[in-house]
Design brief:
The chain is built from 29 helices and 37 strands. The chain is of the alpha/beta class and 976 residues long.
Length: 976
């Protein structure tokens, strides 16, 4: 088979450093270095006829050879990119204490390691240049040529990130070496080693089709016959199709024995550009006497088997320090060797999934790292009992403030006990569930506490939700009674609705029997989006809440001096943390009115006026607050602690806040958690480094909680490798209400500590220091502005519409890295009617945050060859709206105010809008409304309260409202 020669070098470009290698020779003191440049030129001309080369450089180093400066200078030359247009380079390094090093560098595609050594021998006079024999074309490298690999992505973007991340990407000592014994088959080592590396790589990267590079070995040739590097090829492994590892070894052996039959340079180049060639196995020459160790790793991690004279095996690994962390490299080599031993020594042949990556000691170490370093913590107390202790200790301290009204701990306790007695009088018995349909007011907190004191379970519902969803929650939860402050709530047969005042009207005293339920009895049921098409109730016990507050109290220094805010709906579990974080530590809870929570400026003023010290925010909401803080000049805030949760955080967006509020004054903490694990699981205090560089870290587990990162067989994965996050310990919920099969699927026995562990569906990795990194979801669930959304629930609601034949729901990003640009988009095939009508009907059954920003009608949903939804072929709805708009500001003929309003809305939404277009039907969400309010103010237009933007959702209506003077409208009712 004739293989094309390496093409000429491309002018103005040289090979990437990962495709060069070098030899460094310490010259004897008697060497006449003055003749070496001429000898080098002659040797290069002989080795590379017609290719030429650069003159050998000479560098004087004002430092000793073995000094730090000397080593740094030598390493800089060893890894210096080749000069433009050249495939070889040479340099003499003369040190202050006398020694001289000769460094020769070449592109692997042109000269392999033996050839480079031969070139060194010819230069130093060991052999005459005439003895060199350039290799014939068929012996030239058949891996990607220098031009083929030029488009390859830097490994630092892939292999050098995440579990492989280098601790020092700028390291000048660019190659590290690890050695470990290799037990098992020693006659034919390369094929099983390739399989072992492939299995290990698949586990490390959660891939079922891992791809590695392999070098079978050099073609035989005379000592001074030159040529390109040894044949390199790709080996890919289908871990699903293989019946056992023996089958994989046979296939690898076959391909390594006949490499020409499997060589596909186009595929190799494609794989390289796709960043899948990260580990290579093969044979590399060992250093000779007089040579300094300087072998560059051709791949980020190269595994080299070495056979000793006693026939024992050693595995030598070369890794690039700028790409791979040394500890990670050491672990991978150890795991590959462990797999090699199993697949070559084990009786029978295990399947790829049967092979264990970790030994028993390392499994114990990984499991232990996911536990808290603090003492185990699980508080066997009830919430109401802990609150009663606070009320007894500080009866006159302010427990609650809301719009100018306040309640002391004693007053709150007394009102709650009278309400609890009233609930008992209404027939509520221990274990009953009580629905709460209350706005943000003292009545909400009083009733929550009263339900617990009555030994019952509270089921919070957001008054802003559609009536149908509220009715479903009431019926599904089987509530005994609903406490509501609304006149327009849903009417569910058999479920009475009472107002807070009615509960206590007929109660003569606050006498109550002691609760029979203990710490493990249910405290509340919160409904989350469900993949089956209906929301599901999560049943959380008292123990989880009390343990959460106890787990954080010392670290966060929570005390009676703190002022907390209740910013979130009681139907969002973040409110559990806000309410009880304040009331179980003796602090003051400030109830934030709904419309204040929608306005960053008003919320900022509330924080200043109330001297709030602890605030909890989703990252999306906090970005709006931070913008208001910037606009207001970093006004006199008393905040000392900001807790992030509910959705992933991009720490890089916090730089401006830290400039105004240094971390020493206001601590920023990113927390990961799930409703099913009682709000929070881990905590990570953000640093300036995190803000500057970004981080996926969500910190270490809280005392009393445990996290495991497991594979599909519930085995711990290695440190740094991705897997599914499981949560165990004090915060794990009891069950999904009346969903036994779903409960069995998600709440599993904890094999290490007993009890239950919750299968989160989140992807993550655990570092050796116990820090958890969150890598997203394993399914289609999304987090949008803090809300947990199952697209399947939206799809089910769409398919319940008689006009919808089929539907698909996806999350789109209209503006990259902009929270306001993330939106739900729905695509439907209709039997009749318009897509806009479908969206309006959908808004009547789903909460606002789940209503798609757009519903697009298609003739048919695009499908893959396998009959699955082809998401890539769905039309991008934002672009469609922009193309189909055409009715924007040019169509406005209502004066300057209307034109300016349209300009602002179009700039914020990035789509054309007509005077009568409803902003929210055009894709606006709460973040857009906040930005519009800010933009109006910055343009000098009339300040518009946020509620008026909701009440006047078209530019024409808003313009008329502003023209008429909106002072008369301030009495209009808003949401709770």
């Amino acid at each position: 088979m004739t293989v094309p020669a390496v093409p000429p070098a491309i002018p103005g470009d040289g090979p990437p450093t990962e495709h060069t290698h070098a030899v460094c020779v310490r010259l004897p003191a008697t060497t006449d270095t003055t003749v070496l440049p001429t000898a080098w030129r002659e040797a290069v001309q002989k080795a590379l006829p017609g290719r030429g080369g650069h003159a050998m450089r000479q560098v004087d180093i004002a430092a000793d050879a073995e000094s730090h400066t000397g080593l740094r200078c030598r390493n800089e030359e060893l890894y210096r990119p080749l000069p433009t247009g050249s495939m070889v380079d040479g340099v003499l390094l003369r040190y202050a204490d006398g020694p001289t090093d000769m460094v020769l560098i070449a592109c692997r595609a042109v000269l392999d390691a033996p050839s480079l050594r031969a070139l060194a021998d010819a230069t130093t006079g060991v052999v005459a240049p005439e003895a060199l024999e350039p290799a014939p074309a068929q012996r030239v490298l058949r891996t990607p040529t220098c031009s083929a690999v030029r488009g390859r992505r830097d490994f630092a973007a892939g292999f050098g990130s995440g579990q492989w991340a280098a601790s020092n990407p700028a390291a000048t000592d660019r190659t590290g070496v690890i050695r470990t014994s290799l037990k098992g088959e020693s006659r034919d080592v390369l094929a099983p080693l390739a399989v072992a590396a492939g299995i290990a790589l698949g586990r490390y990267e959660d891939q079922r089709h891992p791809v590695i590079g392999a070098v079978p070995g050099a073609a035989p040739r005379q000592r001074y016959s030159l040529g390109g590097a040894d044949f390199a090829m790709l080996l890919d492994f289908d871990l699903d199709a293989a019946t056992d590892t023996a089958e994989l070894i046979v296939e690898a052996r076959h391909r390594l024995a006949a490499p020409d039959d499997h060589w596909d340079p186009t595929r190799f180049r494609t794989a390289a550009e796709a960043d899948v060639g990260r580990v290579m196995v093969g044979f590399l020459p060992e250093a000779r006497t007089g040579e300094l160790p300087c072998q560059t790793a051709p791949f980020p991690l190269t595994l080299v088997p070495r056979r000793h004279s006693d026939d024992s095996l050693e595995l030598e690994a070369h890794y690039r320090l700028r790409d791979v962390d040394p500890d990670t490299a050491e672990r991978f080599v150890r795991h590959a060797a462990h797999v090699y031993e199993q697949i070559t020594q084990t009786t029978g042949s295990p399947t790829p999934d049967d092979v264990e990556l970790l030994d028993s000691d390392e499994r114990r170490a990984v499991v232990a790292a996911g536990g808290s370093r603090a003492s185990a913590l699980s508080i066997a107390e009830r919430i109401d009992t802990m609150f009663a202790a606070q009320a007894a200790e500080r009866p006159d301290a302010v427990a609650l403030r809301s719009e100018g009204r306040s309640l002391t701990y004693a007053q709150l306790q007394e009102r709650a006990r009278r309400c609890a007695a009233g609930l008992r009088a209404l027939g509520v018995v221990p274990g009953d569930r009580v629905g709460l349909l209350l706005g943000r007011s003292p009545d909400l907190i009083v009733t929550i506490l009263a339900v617990l004191q009555a030994d019952a379970v509270y089921v919070p519902m957001d008054p802003a939700y559609p009536a149908d969803r509220l009715a479903h929650t009431m019926a599904d939860a089987g509530v005994r009674v609903v406490v509501s402050d609304r006149d327009d709530g849903p009417d569910v047969p058999g479920i009475p609705v009472v107002r807070p005042a009615e509960i206590t009207a007929q109660v003569p005293s606050a006498s109550l029997p002691a609760p029979r339920g203990g710490a493990d009895s249910p405290a509340y049921v919160i409904y989350t989006s469900g993949s089956t098409g209906q929301p599901k109730g999560v049943v959380v016990p008292h123990r989880g809440v009390v343990s959460l507050i106890a787990a954080t109290q010392e670290d966060f220094a929570l005390s009676p001096d703190d002022v907390w805010t209740l910013f979130h709906s009681s139907a969002f579990d973040f409110s559990v943390w806000e309410i009880w974080g304040a009331l179980l530590t003796g602090g003051t809870l400030v109830v934030v009115p709904y419309w204040v929570s929608r306005s960053p400026e008003e919320f900022h003023r509330l924080l200043v006026d109330e001297r709030a010290t602890v605030v909890s925010q989703t990252p999306t909401a906090f970005m709006q607050l931070a913008e208001a803080d910037r606009w207001l000049g970093g006004a006199d805030l008393a905040l000392r602690l900001v807790i992030f949760g509910g959705e992933p955080l991009d720490a890089r967006s916090l730089g401006g806040w830290l400039d105004r509020h240094p971390a020493a004054e206001c601590r920023l903490v990113n927390m990961y958690g799930i409703t099913e694990t009682t709000v929070h699981v881990t905590a990570h205090t953000l640093t300036r480094h995190d803000v500057q560089n970004g981080t996926r870290s969500v910190g270490r587990v809280l005392p009393g909680w445990r996290v495991y990162v497991l594979d599909k067989r519930l085995r711990p994965v290695p440190f740094g490798a991705p897997g599914e996050i499981y949560v165990a310990g004090a915060g794990v919920a009891l069950e999904y209400l009346d969903r036994p099969q779903l409960t069995r699927d998600r709440f599993l026995p904890d094999p290490w500590a007993g009890g239950l562990m919750y299968r989160s569906g989140d992807r993550g990795r655990l570092r050796p220091d116990g820090v958890l990194e969150h890598l997203g979801r394993l399914d289609d669930q999304v987090k949008l502005r803090g809300f947990r959304i199952e697209p399947d629930e939206i799809s089910a609601a769409l398919l319940a519409d008689p006009a919808v034949v089929s539907a698909a729901v996806v999350l789109e990003e209209t503006i990259p890295r902009d929270p306001a640009g993330r939106q739900i988009a729905a695509y439907v095939v209709l039997s009749r009617g318009e897509a806009s009508d479908v969206r309006r009907r959908l808004a009547a059954v789903l909460p606002e945050f789940m209503v798609p920003a757009s519903v697009t009608a298609l003739d048919a949903l695009p499908l893959t060859l396998n009959g699955k939804l082809d998401r890539k072929r769905l039309p991008f709805t934002a672009a469609q709206r922009a193309e189909s708009g055409g009715r924007g500001r040019a169509a406005a003929d209502g004066g300057w105010l209307l034109r300016d309003l349209l300009t602002v809305w179009e700039d914020v939404l990035q789509v054309p809008i007509g005077p009568h277009d409803n902003f929210f039907e055009t894709g606006a969400n709460s973040l857009h409304v906040m930005r519009v309010s800010t933009a109006l103010r910055e343009r000098g237009l009339p300040t518009v309260p946020l509620r008026q933007l909701y009440l006047h959702p078209t530019a024409s209506r808003l313009a008329r409202f502003l023209d008429s003077g909106y002072g008369h409208h301030e009495s209009e009712a808003g949401q709770s």
